[in-house]
Specification:
The protein is an alpha/beta fold and 308 residues long. The protein contains 12 helices and 10 strands.
Length: 308
């Protein structure tokens, strides 16, 4: 059986990197020759997770076709979020929890997607279904990914399946989910140490909505002012990247992980679509997003509905 690579999306978050490690482990146990890789370096939160559980970070790639013919995707399916040469590769497996858009294959594909808070929750189910034991270290990665994606089970994307997974994984990983989760989330909120470019790209995803190229980034913080005080510099960086990459609309969403509120910095057009999507006014290139914490459930569908 030929070797395959498994990876999450570009600008990887904790779930994208941990899920690749988890799925590679499962697939290797099931007889596949699979290596977990990443499409970017781990962010500060993910570094905390990997260090805490003693897990080496996957190597970073920019292309896959020089190494393999086939790949497996986790935590994404849209080609613009994937490896740069995805059009040269055969996708054999996908495990995801997002919308399905612009995705097609020439050959039959294994596709598992569920509307849960985190793809590691789906993988937790798959381990149990295949009767593959989850080691302590891997349980720690799964737990961390779910905490990250659901903001410690406070996000509206959280389901009972996520809650059950967190309870069981915390036991296997031998940690207190609440105590560990707060430490982990705070580890990823030191924005002062990050460059403008890193902030606008750190957790960014690209989407096509109504023929518009839309880029949406999310920054977790414990104080929105830590991000907003850099608005002018961030707007300059967003403008440069939008012009270079052809984005029509660029949103950088700052999210307070403690009180579950957000505010977005906006570059490009149509800004009136953003106002309509969130029933709020854009003022000086920012818009208040009270109660918004989930890009997947509270931002992408709303913008898509307006732009389409």
């Amino acid at each position: 059986m030929a070797k395959e690579l498994v990876f999450g999306h570009q600008s990887p978050d904790t779930d994208a990197i941990c899920a690749a490690i988890e799925y590679a482990y499962l697939q290797n146990k099931l007889g596949y020759d699979v290596e977990a890789v990443a499409l970017g370096t781990p962010n500060e939160e993910t570094k905390f997770v990997l260090d805490y559980f003693g897990q080496e970070a996957p190597r970073v790639i920019t292309e896959a076709s020089p190494e393999v013919d086939s790949v497996m995707l986790v935590d994404h399916n849209e080609p613009q979020q994937s490896v740069s040469d995805i059009d040269k590769l055969t996708v054999t497996h996908v495990v995801d929890h997002h919308r399905i858009a612009d995705f097609n294959t020439e050959k039959p594909v294994f596709y598992r997607a569920e509307p849960v808070g985190c793809v590691s929750t789906v993988l937790f189910e798959m381990f149990n279904e295949k009767n593959v034991e989850i080691p302590e270290k891997l349980a720690g990665l799964m737990l961390s990914a779910i905490i990250s994606d659901t903001l410690l089970l406070k996000s509206p994307t959280t389901t009972d399946v996520d809650k059950k997974a967190v309870a069981e994984l915390a036991k296997i990983a031998n940690v207190d989910a609440e105590e560990y989760g707060i430490k982990m989330l705070k580890a990823g909120t030191n924005v002062d140490a990050r460059s403008d470019k890193d902030l606008i790209d750190g957790d960014a995803k690209s989407f096509t909505m109504g023929g518009k190229a839309v880029r949406i980034d999310q920054i977790n913080t414990v104080d929105l002012n830590d991000v907003l005080k850099r608005k002018e510099d961030l707007l300059k960086a967003m403008e440069e990247e939008a012009k270079a990459e052809g984005y029509d609309l660029f949103l950088v969403i700052a999210t307070n992980v403690l009180d579950s509120n957000s505010e977005a910095i906006i570059y490009g057009e149509p800004k009136d679509a953003v106002e309509k999507a969130f029933n709020q006014k854009v003022s000086e290139d920012t818009i208040a997003l009270p109660g918004v914490v989930s890009r997947k459930k509270q931002v992408v569908p709303q913008l898509t509905d307006v732009l389409d």
